[in-house]
Write a structure and sequence with these properties.
This protein is α+β, with helices and mostly antiparallel strands. The protein is 16% helix and 47% strand. The protein has helices at 21-27, 75-82, 121-126; strands at residues 30-44, 47-60, 63-72, 89-93, 98-107, 110-115.
Length: 128
């Protein structure tokens, strides 16, 4: 590096502090626990529609998180989104398991979502 460089080379590594990236990397690793695919039903206050879904469950530290995508005839639900109407939605799988979902993208006949229901050990055993 030149003397005019804004970052001067000191020849030493910065000390790792408790809040430095090394700790975050260990805690922030996501591990895929389950990948679920199949037919289901998307339910909201005014209706429901058959969908096919892809749902991935991850372990993040001591918590479980899930997200996915679904496809179906989402025209009725899209109309509510265009009106910016708050609408609680649930995904019910073919075997009857239900989770609350927050649709984060809705375009045409497809949507992406985050699962907002708690995914504890009993829920994970339930989904196989």
């Amino acid at each position: 590096m030149t003397a005019t460089s804004p970052i001067a080379w000191t020849g030493t590594r910065p000390a790792q502090t408790h809040n430095s990236g090394g700790n975050r990397r260990r805690e922030g690793r996501m591990r895929l626990l389950k990948a679920l695919r199949g037919p289901g039903v998307l339910i909201w206050s005014d209706g429901w529609v058959p969908v096919t879904y892809e749902l991935d469950v991850f372990q993040l530290g001591s918590a479980c998180v899930a997200s996915g995508a679904l496809q179906g005839d989402l025209d009725k639900l899209a109309a509510l989104f265009q009106l910016d109407v708050a609408c609680a939605t649930r995904l019910r799988t073919a075997d009857g398991w239900e989770v609350d979902v927050d649709l984060i993208g809705l375009e045409g006949d497809a949507a992406s979502f985050d699962v907002t229901s708690a995914l504890d050990e009993s829920a994970l055993r339930r989904i196989g």
